[in-house]
Structures are given as C-alpha cells and as structure tokens.
C-alpha cells in the first residue's frame, strides 16, 4: 500500500485539526502488513526514500557483536533427518536450480563488487535489529507523505511548511519507532528458544536447522498442535535467515568482530497449526485468540490440526529486486522443511492485492488451500489468501 497523501484540498482541515489537538495519534493497525502476510517488496522506492527522510535514524549499536551462522556451513554440518546421510550445500543449489547464490551462500551479483552479501542464520538478539528495520521498511504502511506544492499559494505553502510538514514528520518518526519496537520484540519472542543456546557448551555442535528447540524433558514424538508444550516450542523456534553484509567498524569495541550488518533480504520459517490463522507478532496473542475462537460458535471447526512448516515475512530491499533472491529464499526454506524437517507441505499467507508476491508463489507451485480464518473479529483476515505447496523429492545425490 502507498503512503497517505495530503493535498491542497485537505490542508486547511489538517491545520485546524493539528492546532486544536494534542497530537494524540492512534497507532495504525499493522497486524497484517507488518507482521504476518508474506508480501514481496510492496513499497516502491520513491515512497520508501520519502519515508526514511521523516524517520528516526537508529545509531549503530555500541559494543554489540553479531552471532550470525553462515547458512552454507549450517547446512553442511546438519545431517538429513531421514537416514543421516550428508548432502552439501552446493549440491542443494544444483537440485533446486538456484543460480543466485554460490556454494558459500554469497549473492552471485555481488561477488565482483566491494559488497558481498551472504546468507546467514540469525542466532542472537544482536542479529535482529537490522532485520527488523528491513521488515518495517518493506511492510510498513503507516507513513504520511506530502503531495506536490506547485498549486499552493504563498500563504498555504507557509502554513504547511511551518505546521503540517513538521507534524507529519514527527508522526512518521513516532510511527516508525513504535513499529520498529513492535517488530523487533516479535522477532525476539518468536526465536527465543534458539537464542537461549548462545554461549552454552552446546553451541559448537548445535543443529541450527532443527525444527524445534525445546527442553529435553518434553516429548516431541507427537505432532498434534493440541499438545500445549509442543505448540509453545514451535511458536518460539522460528528460523530466521538474512542475506547480509557484515560490517566491522575501525573503532569496534569487540576487538575487530563484526558489530553490524546491512540486510537486503530476509525470510522466516517456523512450524504452525494448519488452521489458516494469520499469526500475530507475539506468540502469546495467538494462544489467546485460538482460545477465544473455541468459545465461540466457530470453535467447532477447530480440531487441533497438526503443525506444518510456515513461510512468512519474506522481505527484499527495493534496490535488490529482479535478482532471483525471492525465488532462491523460497526454495531454500522449502528444502529445509523437506530435507531437514521431513515435511511434505509448506504453508503461507499472502495479500491477494500484492501482484508481485502472487506471481512468485504461483510460479513456485503454491495453490490456495480454500480455507480462511473467519473469526467474527478477524475483519480483513478473511481476505488474506492461505496457500500451500506440496514438497516433492528432488532426487538428491548422496
């Protein structure tokens, strides 16, 4: 969706409202576009650049260090779950016909340039702020943009420049900070279980591609989402991938270790009940909503469906579209779900108005499930498409 545009017709209304109010803006509803729908580069570059001029610029995090794990190494170190046999990452790329990345997970179009973007797994809280910023830049629809002032007279231009423009800038900055905090908090909550292993003795041999990270005393033999402990572990075991370039500042307080990164694409994979529910940013809100549905007239349709892989939050910087990144990330997470997690299907939600995303998923073989989340308070949720893809074997070389 494009930013709201203020034109000459509503200038007087805006000025009157701003002068008579205390700027007590209501936060926009960002449930669907910001967190849940797997849209694909929905913001055009011009509006994105305009919004960035009116936002808070977050300074580099001092004395923080990244704990990124190169995806190629994680894949090569993780055994296939079926028979324990090994398949290299380069073999995987050939099998899924991925020509955008090399055998180290580096973006091919950046190999001959100064910037090299590599595919990583986020494993710590310090890895998440740049991913949260990209997510908000791609999905955010809360910004207000000013229309062209060529048809304004001197008085109107002066009033807009002195009153409306500063207020709009302040609102955009405030909305961005609220959205950033929400997205970052959600990322932390959804991958909390994976973060807990950082710094432990298990880190050296941890299978970063495991579908669930949970206490050893929990029975994982059941795949029924009605198992509260299993569903809770799934909601906090998100696997988050980022195509990024790490940055090591000259004055780094971490002894030359990377302390920041530039992220141009990211994607999230987790297990979720196949009940067509669009997930909230915070897992505990999903628990509450599912409980409410069971107490309504629609509760009879909820029969504890099994957990299945769920693709979400596919984000690509507008500057890096048409390079095959979206297709590559989709196929890689599908390979994780099929080869590492042993699932035969993967699900996602997508806004039907997002033509780029619809075309991508249609070409990749996703089809509409036919069911929707129709809770009486869901509102626009019933319009969000719920897609599934059957994951077929690829004749993997051993």
Topology:
Blueprint lengths: L3 E3 L4 H10 L10 H6 L8 H9 L15 E2 H7 L11 H7 L22 E4 L6 H12 L4 E3 L7 H37 L1 H4 L32 H8 L3 E9 L12 E14 L9 H12 L12 E10 L8 H16 L4 E6 L4 H9 L3 E2 L16 E6 L8
Parallel strand pairs: 1-4, 7-8
Antiparallel strand pairs: 2-3, 3-5, 5-6, 6-7, 8-10, 9-10
Helix pairs in contact: 1-7, 6-7
In short:
The chain is 34% helix and 15% strand. It has twelve helices and ten strands. It has an eight-stranded mixed beta sheet, with helices on both faces.
C-alpha-based Rg, rounded:
22 Å
Mean pLDDT, to the nearest integer, reads: 74
Measure the end-to-end span.
Answer: 46 Å
CATH architecture of the domain at 69-126 and 189-390: 3-Layer(aba) Sandwich
Please provide the count of β strands: 10
Shape: globular
Strand percentage: 5-15%
What is the CATH superfamily of the domain at 69-126 and 189-390? Gcn5-related N-acetyltransferase (GNAT)
Number of continuous helical runs: 12
Query: What is the helix/strand order?
Result: EHHHEHHEHEHHHEEHEHEHEE
- Give me the side-by-side strand order of the main sheet: 2-3-5-6-7-8-10-9
The CATH class name of the domain at 69-126 and 189-390 reads Alpha Beta
Low-confidence segments, given as residue ranges, are 1-63
CATH topology of the domain at 69-126 and 189-390: Aminopeptidase
Fraction of residues in helix: 25-40%
Q: Give the structural class.
A: alpha+beta
């Amino acid at each position: 969706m494009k930013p709201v545009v203020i034109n000459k017709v509503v200038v007087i209304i805006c000025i009157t409202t701003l002068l008579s109010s205390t700027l007590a803006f209501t936060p926009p509803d960002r449930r669907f576009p910001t967190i849940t729908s797997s849209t694909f580069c929905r913001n055009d570059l011009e509006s994105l650049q305009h919004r960035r001029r009116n936002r808070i610029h977050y300074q580099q995090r001092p004395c923080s260090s990244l704990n990124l794990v190169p995806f190629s190494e994680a894949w090569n170190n993780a055994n296939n779950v079926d028979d324990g046999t090994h398949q290299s990452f380069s073999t995987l790329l050939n099998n899924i016909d991925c020509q955008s990345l090399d055998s180290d997970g580096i973006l091919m179009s950046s190999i001959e340039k100064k910037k090299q973007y590599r595919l990583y797994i986020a494993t710590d809280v310090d890895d998440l702020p740049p991913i949260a910023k990209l997510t908000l830049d791609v999905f955010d629809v809360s910004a207000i943009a000013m229309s062209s002032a060529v048809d304004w007279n001197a008085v109107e231009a002066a009033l807009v420049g002195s009153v409306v423009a500063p207020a709009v800038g302040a609102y955009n900055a405030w909305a961005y900070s609220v959205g950033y905090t929400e997205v970052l908090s959600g990322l932390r909550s959804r991958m909390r279980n994976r973060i807990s292993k950082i710094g432990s003795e298990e880190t050296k041999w941890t299978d970063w591609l495991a579908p669930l990270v949970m206490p050893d005393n929990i029975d994982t033999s059941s795949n029924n989402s009605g198992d509260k402990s299993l569903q809770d572990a799934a909601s906090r075991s998100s696997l988050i991938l980022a195509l990024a370039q790490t940055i090591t500042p000259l004055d780094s307080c971490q002894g030359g270790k990377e302390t920041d990164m530039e992220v141009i694409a990211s994607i999230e994979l987790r297990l979720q009940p196949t009940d067509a529910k669009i997930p909230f940013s915070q897992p505990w809100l999903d628990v509450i909503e599912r409980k409410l549905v069971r107490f309504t007239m629609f509760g009879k349709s909820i029969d504890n469906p099994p957990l299945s892989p769920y693709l979400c939050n596919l984000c690509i910087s507008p500057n890096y579209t048409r390079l095959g990144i979206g297709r590559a990330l989709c196929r890689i997470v599908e390979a994780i779900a099929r080869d590492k997690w042993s699932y035969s299907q993967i699900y996602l939600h997508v806004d039907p108005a997002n033509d780029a995303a619809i075309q991508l998923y249609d070409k990749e073989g996703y089809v509409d499930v036919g069911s929707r989340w129709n809770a009486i308070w869901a509102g626009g949720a019933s319009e969000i498409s719920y897609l599934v893809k059957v994951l077929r074997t690829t004749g993997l070389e051993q």
